[in-house]
Amino acid sequence: MGHNSASASIQLVSLLILSGILSLETIKLGFCNDDHNVRCIDIERKALLKLKQGLMDPSGQLSSWVGEDCCKWSGVGCNNITGRVNRLDLGNRDGYEENAFDGEINPSLLVLKDLEYLDLSIINNFGGVQFPSFIGSLEKLKYLNLSGLDFVGVIPPNLGNLSRLLYLDLGNHIPPNIKVDENLETDLQWLATLSSLKYLNLGGVNLTKATSYWLPTVNMLPSLVELHLQSCSLPMLPLTLPSINFTSLSVLDLSGNEFTTTIPPWLFNLTKLEMLDLSYNSLMTGKLPDSLGYLKSLRYLHLLYNSFQGSIPKSIGNLTSLEEFYLRGNQMSGIIPESLWELSSMVSLDISRNTWEGAITEAHFVKLGGLREVSIGNDPPNISLVFNISSDWIPPFKLRYLEIISCQLGPKFPTWLRNQTELTTVVLHNARISGTIPDWFWQLDLQFDILDVADNQLSGRVPNSLRFNHASTIDLTSNRFEGLLPLWSSNISYLYLRDNQFSGPIPHNIGQVMPNLQYLDISTNSLSGSIPLFLGTLSQLQVILISNNLLSGEIPHFWNNMPSLQMIDLSNNNLSGEIPHFWNNMPLLISIDLSNNSLSGTIPRSLCSLTSLQLLGLSSNNFSGEFPSLKNCTNMNILDLGDNKFSGPILASIGESMPNLHILSLRSNSFTGSIPLKLCGLSALHILDFSHNNLSGNIPHCIGNLSYLKSESTDEVNYGYEGRFELVSKGREFVYDYFSILYLVTSIDLSDNKLSGEIPMGLTSLIKLDTLNLSMNHLTGNIPTNIGNLELIETLDLSMNKLSGKQFQTFIDPSIYEGNPGLSGCPLPTGCQYNEGAPQVLSGDGGEDDDSKREKLQFVIGMVIGFCAGFWGVFGTLAMKRSWRYAYFHFLDKVKDAVLYFVLAIGTYLQKRS
Ligand SMILES: *[C@@H]1O[C@H](CO)[C@@H](O)[C@H](O)[C@H]1NC(C)=O
Ligand SMILES: *[C@@H]1O[C@H](CO)[C@@H](O)[C@H](O)[C@H]1NC(C)=O
Ligand SMILES: *[C@@H]1O[C@H](CO)[C@@H](O)[C@H](O)[C@H]1NC(C)=O
Ligand SMILES: *[C@@H]1O[C@H](CO)[C@@H](O)[C@H](O)[C@H]1NC(C)=O
Ligand SMILES: *[C@@H]1O[C@H](CO)[C@@H](O)[C@H](O)[C@H]1NC(C)=O
Ligand SMILES: *[C@@H]1O[C@H](CO)[C@@H](O)[C@H](O)[C@H]1NC(C)=O
Ligand SMILES: *[C@@H]1O[C@H](CO)[C@@H](O)[C@H](O)[C@H]1NC(C)=O
After folding, report:
1. Which pLDDT tens digit goes with each residue over 754-791?
2. Where are the bilayer-spanning segments (predicted)?
3. The pTM is what?
4. CA 834 to chain centre
């Protein structure tokens, strides 16, 4: 929420610092412009023209740079006596990219020896350019702003020669929650000589090399008023400092570093601090100290996304000037102290994503008449905080931002919103509200940035008349809203209507009415009819989730207008016909899930052009023919082609071109030929399902090389789907957590094929396997003697083969034979009832029992794959992700119950059963 005011404060302080320089310059400039006798010096004019030549200036901002008197050019100022240029201001005041010049800084600037003020922040060099070392020779500089120039390499230490500098900004101003490669680095030693500095911004500069002495170095700057070291990869915030030099510090921004300690005690001596930002670190250990109360001048305290625990110290009440207090995303808990509610200067309060308890009443807000933004809520979603507010309460504040997450606010829609006519963000997420949203709320005629009432039990219809601001979000997920899909204004970018009772067709004009949609989630409703062609006009769409509806008809051919698409999920509908040949021009596409439809035909070759694809789910359709080469899909994690009519050989190229493949399911198709040896090179594979095909030949001996299944390492984070995409947009986080638990499922299922030969010895080195199913093949020979190495195995099915031998004793734990009525053999109590080498037939009863269990198992594994494929991309928000995770845990428990059986039948001839 509103970080604007914070940046305003920074600008304010900078302005104060600069006012000295600026007023000085104004006088000089005024003189320069009036006095026509003092003209700019020719070599300086030429130097400026060289600079101009190096810049692309499409909007003509340097068009005044013509004629003899360069002192009159815009952005140029001269000394009123010498005529020398002392000021060059090409500052990017409003920060708009469009205003930036592309180009490079010509070293001709070195001629401008009298420069005191240099601001080139409007220049957008193409990146990859070294920091210009001549800057260090402009020794008269007092003001230097090269922010946002994206230099690489090392900051030249000769900047230390600029001993008159008051203001130094080399920061890149990227928000601290966005991680970027830090290409510019420095050891910071040159800084110590800049003892006049009042403002220092090295945001985004890599200070790893200054780990141990960045603080002592900064401590050499007694005049410092503003210090910005956000996102500098600083690993350590020293706990001790013998004495503090920079006691004038008013703004301290250390956000986005890698601190893991607590807030050091010396920081509480900086009693002039007005702004403290330690957000996005891992400051962690323990509670927020009581000494916070010493920072009495604080107006802005930002501690977002750290690991603070415990409650808010009571001394917070001493910070009577506090206007912004952000504590979102910590691990704080307990009751919110009364003293917080005494802070009558508060404008913006964000304490959400912690685990608060107790009650919040109207009395708490009596003194908070200036409150404009408030965010309160819990994460994980324990409803332990209750709003106890009477229905006739008229709040003293007029909010523009209201966010209440996972609290008991309902059951009625809060009537105190009746007078909140200036709201632009309303988030009442998982707030236990039921019934319909009252008409008076819609009649407030609010213009929304965000309207989020997800995870309640709201019902009824939502009017079409709502108004939205640019790039806004509406989230009605998981309620009981009904009726036709509502269409709102063209300003909506994020539309989440998942899991409601919307019915009828997808409106045909959706693409015309909301052309700026980036995220469309209308999955899990009762939508019917076909997918309208007008969806294709949504040229900015990144995510389209329309799974779990009743849609029918063909998939329209419009995808080539959607270059931003990242996820397509059309699974679990009744779509039919062929896949359109739309697989071009989608360089960002990560996942396609078309599973559980009635699609048919062959897979278009153009699919191979999708190099970014990570998930392809085509299971449970009627696709046929050979599968085209996917050689270019080098990022594939999950390939699920199960339950189709694909035929032909398994492409060996899968093994070569998809080094990151985690899950490969070809189950229930008509694939023929042998298992390609190249599959053995899939080092991340942990689920391999080729069951129910017509594969023949041997199980490759190299199968024991599947390195993920082999490794004893418990390193759990190195798999692609363990990564997270985080996208923060309009105060909302979109977290795409790749299957966080699925990597624990390890399975090889080759059952019901025509595989022959022996079980390769190598299989027994796949010690991480928990399921191995080779049943219903023509395997012969002995079971490898050391099959007992598979200590984690929960399901081993070798039945209905032609195996022979007596191998039970190789198992360490006899309990694994339990529950196998059809099993006979040493060392089971049933004894050795067969002769070595003689085929053994499963009894009819046992067979049935095993069959039903096997079905269960197959269902289970199939479910796992179907489950994640179906849910891929659906869990757009943290809350959704969490519910998925719970569901999955629940599911996993069931798996354990259902699958703890063990089938081991030796020497089985299916033929002999008859
Ligand atoms: C030239 O500028 C200085 C300040 O830099 C000022 O004091 C002086 O009055 C100016 N001279 C004239 C003639 O305006
Ligand atoms: C910072 O620089 C160090 C080497 O000095 C490098 O190892 C590290 O990856 C860099 N950090 C970032 C975020 O670029
Ligand atoms: C404080 O700053 C002065 C001037 O830069 C320096 O001489 C002194 O060593 C600094 N003190 C500490 C403790 O760093
Ligand atoms: C902080 O202030 C306290 C009390 O005023 C003083 O004893 C202590 O030395 C100061 N610490 C530093 C690092 O200046
Ligand atoms: C907070 O204020 C109270 C009362 O003015 C005072 O007793 C207490 O010491 C202060 N605490 C801090 C940490 O400043
Ligand atoms: C609040 O709203 C009610 C009903 O909409 C109205 O009667 C009342 O005057 C409003 N009060 C304030 C303080 O705006
Ligand atoms: C695969 O990539 C290569 C090299 O980028 C390209 O030439 C080829 O056309 C691509 N194949 C398909 C089917 O897109």
Report:
1. 999 999 999 999 988 888 889 999 999 988 888 888 88
2. 859-880
3. 0.78
4. 59
